[in-house]
Predict the structure.
Amino acid sequence: MDLLRTTIHSTFNSKSRFPLWLLPPLLLIDAVFCTTIILKVPYTEIDWKAYMEQVSQYRAGERDYVMIKGRTGPLVYPAGHVYIYNYLYGVTRGGVDVGLAQWIFMGVYLVTVGVVGLCYREARAPPYLLPFLILSKRLHSIYMLRLFNDPFSILLLFLAVFVWQKKLWTLGSLAYSLSVGVKMNTLLALPAVGGLYLLALGRDKALRQAGIMLQLQLLLATPFLTEFPMSYLNRAFEFTRQFFFQWTVNWRFVGEEVFLSKGFSLGLLGLHACLLLFFLVTRWSKPSDRSFPTRNPQVCPHHRSWCERNRHALRSQPALPVLLMACLGYPLPSLAQWVWAWVGYGALGCTGVGVERIP
């Protein structure tokens, strides 16, 4: 009876970490799902061959992003994407062994679920949320049947969230910058990351972390920046790029003409900015009940107690603002539907990872 009461209490109580032994059975069940999908569901070719064509040009010595193209168009992802698929090109014999690639993506998927589970645990999320992590049909499809680059970017993003929860800020900066270096969609979380750093570390240390992120981006892109810098910047971080109407999910009801119009895009961008401001004022600075600090806590002698309380409060809930940005950014018309790979985890994270109580 005591064991039953303890189990029920731990299942629905969000004030303590759930036991680690809950994750291996979850991953084992999901591994069975993934294996069944790979063996029984036909693979769908979308971008894999294009990625392989682009990587083959990189391997041949091409460093001009404008000249690197595949059957679906030019290379439009940062250097981290190139390095990952360059490795996959090698182990899959030039992309011919798609089956092996699917098994690799299955491994990436299971590691990501495990990391997300650890984030939930650190945030004192109730264990009943865990089964929902493995029930998404689309997530399984994106990883095992599409072989997109989102899985690598999202794995790095959640690794960053996890180490932020452990107060390892520099490791978090490196992981987050690597995530952006694979696909720039995770830049949507940058306002929340910046707010988190400012509130938890102060201005000067936050700027140092930003410098670390920038240096890593420059290091990743060195082979391209040294020869064709503008070509790389314009292609890998093309903020003016607009997707075709056929790829949208959320805004299909508005029609193609409205979707492609400049007014519609600017309107959504303005709405997005307003949402950022709203959460900045009403949510992200709430634990301290103060505005963002302008100095480091160490050089704020008159407000030392507030700075310490502020840092403690924000360090205890880094996951919520970062994952909330995933949900805020998803409706933007400039994003393809595959962003669901991180919104799927982030949407649940807003109710799960963000439930940690602030002392």
Summary: Residues 10-236 form one domain. Confidence is low (pLDDT under 50) at residues 297-316, 326-343, 346-359. DSSP finds 17 helices and two strands in the chain.
